[in-house]
Specification:
Strand content of chain A: 25-35%
CATH class of the largest domain in chain A: Alpha Beta
Helix content of chain A: 10-25%
Structural class of chain A: alpha+beta
Number of strands of chain A: 10
Distance between the termini of chain A: 35 Å
Oligomer: homodimer
Largest interface: A-B, 35 and 35 residues
CATH architecture of the largest domain in chain A: 2-Layer Sandwich
Number of helices of chain A: 5
Largest sheet of chain A: 10 strands, mixed
CATH topology of the largest domain in chain A: Alpha-Beta Plaits
């Protein structure tokens, strides 16, 4: 038995999210089908982040157990031949026996991209949320600053399936480059729809519908109704996942 | 009779190029069909640049004559409702009687985007050409510098349909931002496949297969066989078109 780790990215536009679902084309389903075909055995993967329909990934990670002898380079090329260029595998590697893409992860980083201008951009429509109003980035960064540390994010989580909604945010900030505004957030883990919910609230602050200092009251409320609407999925990218002994995923690949 | 001008951009991925062709979905065909439906008369447009299949536009311009009384704001909204978000109209305006999107243009600017890294990026696969080898940007800029001014570009043109292949390049350069390398070229006009052919040659120089000082001999040869292979269409964007009394198109739209 060996544990394999796959680092990969995908355009989530035409997938019904990450998690396998009967009768729907999902990232995990497509990947497992290919793995099962190549390795001639049924493969069940565990993923670092369960992205929703329309959400993308640059640095997704899955792991699985296999008793096949695997040529990792060749498996990577086979997967890219079958799934690329919509999904691109950066590396396939033999991992330590106790490695699990979900439970071994020490942090996840997501980015959320906003196009801040009046007109949509046909070339970026699948990867940015268009916000046409002017935005106060300073106020949004004040919110981001208050997210740091451990908080109960119940107000920003969809139906917690039991378990805690305590999460530790390691870093969060907003930056801008011309008409592109990017939210980066790194945390030990995220509950369901947490990033999109935080972006929805932050943009309401940015466009003056709420005040940045309300973030504390919203967190304290532990009530989803206290937050704002969800930002749409297509601006969201699972950017990177960190592990104890390999702090950076390799999905961006080596430079030439 | 009034002359109307439309400024717009599009994702060329799912169009068979700009020019109307019977039985194929093209940009001009889709636009004319919508205009004819809204204005209740057959509309024939003239475009500033004839982009090939897979080529995009940020700042395309068309003009047409109409004897309808047109509410330009409303026509713009109708077109975006029918064609967006794949094609987005930035403005519809009544133009001077002698305006013609093609013949009144004094320059066109194209950009060509290259992703210079080992692995494809699923999120940028429709708008960049992947070049995995390392690239000498200085050598490519030496070529760009030699393109300035008036030259006979026959070596870089597909079958000139009669007429001259003399063109005047106003500006050309290569810039890089992380793994993205961009070629900008502005000229009075371009012959067919000229930008993709220049990019093909420049990249051959960048990866050391040809020398930058060969550009003069290739231009002098006036023979397509002297150039290099064409760069693929999906990295190319018709960026902007200049007119005497409106030097900048409005397709990028006002900032919020």
């Amino acid at each position: 038995m060996a544990v394999l780790r796959i680092d990969f990215g995908y355009d989530g536009t035409n997938f019904h999210g990450f998690a396998r679902q009967a009768g729907l084309r999902t990232v995990q389903g497509a990947l497992e089908d290919c793995l099962s075909r190549v390795l001639k055995q049924e493969v069940t993967t565990t993923g670092a982040g369960r992205t929703d329909t329309g959400v993308h990934a640059r640095g997704q990670v899955v792991s699985f157990e296999t008793d096949s002898v695997v040529d990792v380079e060749r498996l990577g090329r086979s997967l890219n031949g079958m799934l690329g260029p919509e999904l691109i595998v950066a590396s396939v590697a033999i991992a330590p026996d106790d490695f699990n893409a979900r439970f071994s992860a020490v942090w996840r980083e997501y980015r959320y991209q906003i196009l801040n201008r009046v007109l949509p951009d046909p070339l970026r429509r699948h990867v940015c949320w268009l916000v046409a109003e002017s935005i106060d980035l300073g106020a949004m960064n004040a919110v981001a600053k208050d997210l740091s540390g451990q908080h109960d994010f119940a107000s920003f989580c969809r139906l917690p399936q039991g378990g805690t909604t305590l999460r530790t945010v390691i870093e969060a900030d907003w930056t801008e480059d011309q008409d592109l505004i990017v939210f980066r957030i790194r945390a030990n883990s995220f509950c369901h729809q947490m990033v999109r919910s935080l972006v929805g609230f932050s943009i309401d602050v940015g466009r003056g519908r709420r005040k940045s200092d309300q973030i504390t009251a919203v967190l304290d409320a532990r009530d989803r109704a206290a937050a704002s609407l969800l930002a749409p999925p297509h601006g969201l990218i699972l950017w990177d996942v960190g592990y104890k002994n390999s702090p950076q995923s390799t999905v961006h690949g080596p430079q030439p």
